[in-house]
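Hi all, posting the design record for the shared folder.

TITLE: backbone redesign
STEP: 1 of 1
STRUCTURE INPUT:
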């Protein structure tokens, strides 16, 4: 077997991306486990504390420059939307089968395209409009409105995906004038500050096991994000963005073996439609040399 450094760049990127997908799925599985007893707002606050600890060396090396910004209003809007995205995503993960929440989260790609057209004035042709329409048909198949299979938590997942999509467009705007350290610092500090009081008001003392799980959420999320970034340093963005949808398989396996939740037929049909439409959207973007939905930060609950 060839040593890793001798592999092709795309092979390296693909392997690292699969590691990131597995780690991200483990992270949301840990959130689902801890969320059975710990309030979601408390989990979100503790996650931010964990991220701050993991990112503190980089942040302190650039302090106070990391907090300097030319667009404080836009930074605050981004923090508010990130809070909505994380709360919506966490709520869906805790209360829905893991595969369902994961698949609905993929709808973020469609929201990114729509918001990019409105805010960034990017051109969206008829093929991508068709892909977006088909993608939302898949969302409808999964949500099953008006039937006994309908769950309000599916709307939380969609709200989280929409907010996350808008966050990605705002990050594109911020990146024109702000440093990456500034964007990261405001997210870490901002969401942490906003959640500290409600977390304290709803505090449930974690058990020793839950403290270990909470610490693991921060550590696993950090390495998932790093693996994702390194993957895109090696592989082609359009290729890796399509492979990222393999997270659905990880979620289905963990959901079945850990949480005893087997996805329904409607989940597989709807998820298949969503993934196919999202992959086509990525393909069309690669043709037009646009990269919003195929950048490392454009996927997963970690992105916000």
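Okay, here is what came back for every position:
SEQUENCE:
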């Amino acid at each position: 077997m060839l040593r890793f450094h001798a592999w092709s760049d795309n092979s390296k990127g693909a392997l690292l991306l699969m590691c990131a997908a597995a780690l991200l799925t483990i992270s949301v599985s840990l959130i689902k486990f801890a969320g059975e007893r710990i309030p979601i707002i408390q989990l979100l606050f503790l996650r931010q504390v964990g991220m701050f600890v993991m990112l503190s060396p980089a942040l302190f090396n650039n302090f106070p420059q990391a907090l300097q910004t030319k667009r404080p209003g836009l930074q605050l809007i981004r923090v508010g939307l990130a809070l909505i995205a994380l709360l919506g995503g966490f709520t869906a993960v805790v209360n829905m089968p893991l595969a369902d929440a994961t698949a609905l989260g993929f709808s973020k790609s469609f929201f990114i395209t729509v918001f990019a057209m409105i805010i960034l004035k990017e051109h969206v042709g008829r093929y991508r409009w068709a892909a977006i329409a088909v993608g939302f048909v898949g969302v409808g198949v999964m949500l099953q409105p008006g039937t006994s299979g309908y769950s309000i938590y599916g709307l939380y997942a969609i709200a989280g995906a929409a907010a996350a999509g808008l966050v990605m467009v705002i990050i594109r705007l911020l990146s024109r004038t702000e440093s990456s350290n500034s964007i990261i610092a405001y997210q870490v500090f901002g969401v942490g500050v906003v959640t500290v009081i409600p977390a304290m008001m709803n505090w449930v003392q974690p058990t020793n096991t839950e403290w270990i799980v909470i610490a693991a959420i921060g550590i696993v999320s950090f390495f998932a994000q790093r693996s994702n970034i390194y993957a895109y340093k090696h592989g082609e963005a359009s290729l890796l963005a399509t492979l990222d949808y393999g997270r659905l398989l990880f979620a289905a396996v963990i959901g079945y073996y850990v949480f005893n939740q087997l996805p329904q037929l409607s989940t597989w049909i709807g998820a298949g439609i969503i993934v196919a439409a999202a992959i086509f959207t990525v393909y069309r973007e690669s043709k037009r040399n646009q990269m919003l939905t195929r950048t490392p930060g454009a996927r997963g609950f970690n992105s916000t």
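COMMENT: Residues 21 and 246 are 7 Å apart (CA to CA).
Let me know if anyone wants the other runs.
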